[in-house]
Structure formats: structure tokens, C-alpha cells
Amino acid sequence: MIFPQGLRRRQARCAAALAALALLAAATLAAAGLLADSPGADVAVVLGNTVQADGQPSPRLAARLDRAHACYAASRCRILFVSGGVDPQGMDEAAAMRDYLLARGVPAERIVTDSEGVDTWATARHAAAYMRAQGYASAMAVTQYFHVPRTMLALRRHGVAEVVGAHPRYFEGRDLYSLFRELLAMALYTLRPL
What we know:
Structural class: alpha/beta
CATH superfamily: HUPs
CATH architecture: 3-Layer(aba) Sandwich
CATH topology: Rossmann fold
Strand content: 5-15%
Low-confidence stretches: none
CATH class: Alpha Beta
Largest sheet: 5 strands, parallel
Number of helices: 6
Radius of gyration: 19 Å
Shape: elongated
Number of domains: 1
């Protein structure tokens, strides 16, 4: 009977150590995203998110677009590369993002629309290919703070040498879940073959 109790104590200590490690990793990831708030780059790569039934970006997506717009308005970004997928109802995230920026005065020739950015990896691949073709050297990943590090990693893995990040001042309760989800995603993106 002594052995099972000792085993349970070791299991409890291991579980506590793993939980502490996960909390530390999540805090590090959040800090990296929050501190990666850059003033600009050649291309602002804005990652898609939910588009509402009326075709307008969700508040989270609008906050990302407003952050990118501020970069453009301050002449710190030449191009706004908006990337997202098409949802099952046919809502094109990238098109909604483009329309939002056009309505705020960004010239159409300064917006590149990628409707095949179905995930972060695809967006990074498409943005990197566009940048190579156009001769741009630096990218700014514009997304939620917890998503910035993974997006920066994906852009670097696809050959963009100069990558910085920026995030909107927009927070939701679900960010806590998203932060822990990003830990696994970061590990997968680090090991993912090109």
C-alpha cells in the first residue's frame, strides 16, 4: 500500500510541474506577442477572422484592420496584405477585409487580397511569395497578441527575413483558451516541414 501512495504523490507532483510549465509557456507567449508591437514594415500581413452575416468584419477582425489602417495612415506600411478563407456560407474574409479598408480611404492598389489564406501557414506562404515577387523585404504580422508569435514564425519559415508583429488593443475572455491552444500550434509550426 505504501507504493501506490508514493506513486500518487509523484503523479501529483508531475501534474503540478506540467501545469506550472504550461502557465509559464503561456505567459511567455503572451508577453512575446504583446511586446512585438512594431511601428511598421513594407507589408502588413493581416490575418482573417470571422465575418458577420451582414458582410462586416467581426469586432476582433475590425480591430486588426484598424491596426493595419493606422500603420498605413502613418506611412509605415506600403501594402496591406489581407488574407482569409471563404466560410461554408460563402463569406469571403479577405474580400470583406478589403472592403472595410477601402471604406476607410485606403487606395485599392495598396491592398492585396488573398482569399486562399485558410490558415496561418497558408497566409504566410502566400504573403512570402507575394513579397518575393514584388521585392519587399519586411513584413508585419497583424493579428491578436497571442497569435503574433506563430504568425511571425510562419512568415520566417517561408523565407521572409525581416518580420515584426503588431496587435490591436482588443481583448476577449476567449483569449485565455486561444493562448493555450497557441502553445501546441507553435510546437507544430516549429516542426512542420515546408
